[in-house]
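Folds abound. A case:
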Amino acid sequence: PAARPSVAAWELPPSLRPPGPSFTGAITAGTRRLPSEVEEALWQLAATGLVTADGFGALRGLVTGAAKRVSASRRGRRPARRRTGGSRWSLLQAFEEAENAVEERAFQLLRRYGIVFPEVLGREPMAPSWRTLLQVYRRAEARGEIRGGRFVAGLVGEQFALPEAVEAMRSVRRTEPTGEVLVVSACDPLNLAGVITPGQRVPAVSGNKVAFRDGVPVASLQGGDVVPHAEMPDEDRDEVYRALGARRQAAGDRAPALAG
């Protein structure tokens, strides 16, 4: 059975409340208890999930201190004193899910993508189900807060957008292509290659990149290799390789086969 919390453990929480985390020395001064009592109380509170430290020093002290105490007790010597390192301690705040948590998440997705439809949720594994989001979006559309319609061609199902996103899409549609190459991280929400465009998806892995030309994915960098997503003339391919930070093969190189 777990040890019963000491009196010091009951006295510490008020000293750990905002404005912010506190070092062990400040907590000791605030409680007017011995440092050993404060350290013991902190470990008890940490074991029950009531406090946390902002560094690994405290965890190392817990692990190494426990090992030393076990070793010392086996040899009959006095147990080693625990060390909390230079970490700061603070109370863990209980998480209470808001009543409108689903609505907040639904609008977060709208602010992130501008337009939301079922395919977008493929990049959002923690998002509510589309059926749940539909209820929120339909109510918001009825209130005139967002717009519903078919904004992205080639996709089946309802789509919802922020008014400013619709205007931005119209503006882009009226803009002539410039041929500019833009590169984004594969972890960026803008990585919708294979989601709203043909071809394979680019895994959202650190180090992977996607190169877009006029909004169309033309190549990606995956595991250090360049994977083309569209046919490109040599001069364009050189520009894309440079943008991705990759080197072309030696003279007489051949472009890798297009990704399906």
Residues 111 and 162 are 8 Å apart (CA to CA). Confidence is low (pLDDT under 50) at residues 249-260. The two ends are 58 Å apart (CA to CA).
